[in-house]
């Protein structure tokens, strides 16, 4: 979709082993906190003096939190840590801000790179979210 996002994805892929979202943020030196947040908020990022912390909702499903972690990580990579509280459970509205769209696309690229390539290749763009345990509406952010 975007050379900007593709370049950032390639930098991440080159620098880190992409095994799991938690391992990636740990390797990147980003703190990860799980807290009870309101039901509609999956997570957010706090950045001070080049130190970032990703806060995720401890009550949300683990599979979904993988995407939330990567979405927040994408904000750190793409937008200097600028973030809105992720999702509010309606993060796939028709009028998604550019920053949120970019974070979703980079998060999806990284999440897919962490999966078995043969399995992902056997699925359609619309089957992948179900396989990942996330909302099918997120198929919009899958770019091959």
Task: Walk me through what this model shows.
- With 144 residues, the chain is of the alpha+beta class.
- It is built from 6 helices and 3 strands, in the order ααβββαααα.
- It has helices spanning 3-15, 21-27, 62-79, 98-113, 117-121, 128-132; strands at 31-35, 43-48, 51-57.
- The chain has a 3-stranded mixed sheet.
- It is globular and about 40 Å long.
- The model is unreliable at 87-92 (pLDDT under 50).
Topology at a glance:
Blueprint: H1 3-15, H2 21-27, E1 31-35, E2 43-48, E3 51-57, H3 62-79, H4 98-113, H5 117-121, H6 128-132
Parallel strand pairs: 1-3
Antiparallel strand pairs: 2-3
Which keywords apply here?
12% strand; 144 residues; alpha+beta; globular; 44% helix; three-stranded mixed beta sheet
Low-confidence stretches: 87-92
Total helical segments: 6
Structural class of the helices, strands and pairings? alpha+beta
What oligomeric state do the depicted chains represent? Answer: single chain
What is the percentage of strand-forming residues? 5-15%
Number of strands: 3
Amino- and carboxy-terminal Cα gap: 9 Å
Spatial order of the strands forming the largest sheet: 1-3-2
> Compute the gyration radius: what is it?
14 Å
How do the helices and strands follow one another from N- to C-terminus? HHEEEHHHH
Percent helix, as a range, is: 40-55%
Shape: globular
Average pLDDT, to the nearest integer? Answer: 90
Give the biggest sheet. 3 strands, mixed
Short description:
With 144 residues, the chain is of the alpha+beta class. 44% of the residues lie in helices and 12% in strands.
């Amino acid at each position: 979709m975007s050379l900007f996002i593709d370049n950032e994805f390639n930098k991440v892929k080159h620098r880190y082993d992409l095994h799991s979202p938690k391992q990636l943020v740990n390797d990147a030196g980003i703190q990860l906190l799980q807290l009870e947040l309101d039901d509609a908020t999956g997570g957010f990022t706090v950045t001070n003096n080049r130190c970032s912390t990703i806060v995720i909702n401890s009550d949300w499903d683990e599979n979904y939190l993988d995407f939330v972690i990567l979405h927040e990580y994408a904000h750190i990579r793409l937008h200097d840590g600028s973030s809105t509280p992720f999702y509010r459970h309606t993060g796939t509205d028709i009028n998604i801000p550019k920053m949120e769209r970019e974070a979703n696309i980079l998060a999806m690229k990284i999440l897919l790179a962490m999966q078995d390539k043969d399995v992902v290749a056997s699925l359609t763009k619309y089957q992948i979210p179900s396989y990942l345990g996330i909302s099918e509406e997120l198929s919009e952010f899958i770019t091959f």
